Amino acid sequence: MSDGTLLYEVDDRVATVTLNRPDQLNAMTLAMIHALVALIDRANNDDGVRVIVVTGAGRAFCAGADLSGSDSPFASTTERVSTDQPEPDAGGVLTLRIHRCRKPVLAAINGSAAGVGVTMTLAMDARFAADGARFSLPFTRRGIVPESASSWFLPRVVGMDRALDWCLTGRTFNAQEALAAGLVRSLHAPADVLPEAMAHARAIADATAPVSVALTRQLLWRMGAATCPEEAHRIESSLLVSRARSADVQEGVASFLAKRAAVFPDTLSRNLPSGWPDDAATTTENL
Predict the structure, then answer these.
(1) pLDDT higher at 17 or 76
(2) Contact indicator for 111, 137 with CB cutoff of 8 Å
(3) Residues 6+ apart with CB under 8 A from 4
(4) Which of 94, 121, 232, 253 is most buried when burial is the number of CB atoms within 10 A of its CB?
């Protein structure tokens, strides 16, 4: 962003997005959410990016929505409350964009997170957190309801019982509770959170095939909501047939036999079906 509230950098196939309002604990304005969507799209469409890492500047990850001014994420909803078609929740637009992303997205939660600071990470693939971070989903304490599609994502990440606890009470909980519930993968000293996330990003970027990663990411998310294993079997079978003919598989086998690092040639811009992954379940038959 030109105003500096979001920073974007690509280094060796890893894109880092930094929420950069440290004096406001990185509280999100509506403009920031829209800009973050644009940066996710930018990384998603760049074959030179393999993994996206989102972090915060200063001592907090994100204090939630900035409620102090006219650019609050809730302002546009309030202004349109009487219309037949209110504006969609901006946080939900963001999390759905992350959900459909073709690249893994990681959260380096360097400090405390609240509201959208938590919910925007639920569609991400791994969350690393500072051991002193505190978390809250305070929607019922603000007179609203869960946002950012978190009523779908949160129970799938931590289970219904814990999701109900956190959302109904709106209470603040510590990093140890977040770890025990599976909200975050691991805890680290604040200075080590981003390096840990980057190490995980490197493990993906350096050793895996981008098309396989994109397909696998969507398979795991989508089949978690499938009604039966036969649906997963059908889609996996189609994808296996498709990938067996790919240059990536030839390289994967050759590199294994030669005991060398693989250099996968297929790219997301050229080797995914048109429109994917927006309609992945129905397009696999045409791969």
Answers:
(1) 17
(2) no
(3) 20
(4) 121
Q: How is residue 167 written in tokens?
A: 């959302």
Neighbours of 132 (CB within 10 A): 13
Q: Determine the Cα–Cα distance for residues 277 and 287; give it in Å rounded to an integer.
A: 12
Got the DSSP string for 86-114? PPPPHHHHHHHHHHT-SS-EEEEE-SEEE
Q: 55-78 burial string, b = 16+ CB within 10 Å, else e?
A: bbbbebbbbbbbeeeeebbbbbbe
Q: Cα 231 vs. chain centroid, distance in angstroms? A: 25
Where residue 275 falls (left for φ over 0; alpha for ψ -120 to 50; beta otherwise) is left
**C-alpha 285: how far from chain center:** 27
Place domain 6-205 in its CATH homologous superfamily. 2-enoyl-CoA Hydratase; Chain A, domain 1 (3.90.226.10)
The predicted-structure confidence for 179-192, as pLDDT tens digits, reads as follows 999 999 999 999 99
**Better-scored residue on pLDDT, 146 or 222:** 146
The identity of residue 41, as a single letter, is D
3-state secondary structure of 164: helix
pLDDT band (50, 70, 90) for residue 82: low
Q: Give the C-alpha separation, 160 to 144, whole Å.
A: 19
CB atoms within 10 A of CB 273: 15
- CA 216, distance to chain mean position in Å, is 15
Q: β-pairing, 14-19 with 6-11?
A: antiparallel
Domain with CATH 3.90.226.10 in the chain: 6-205
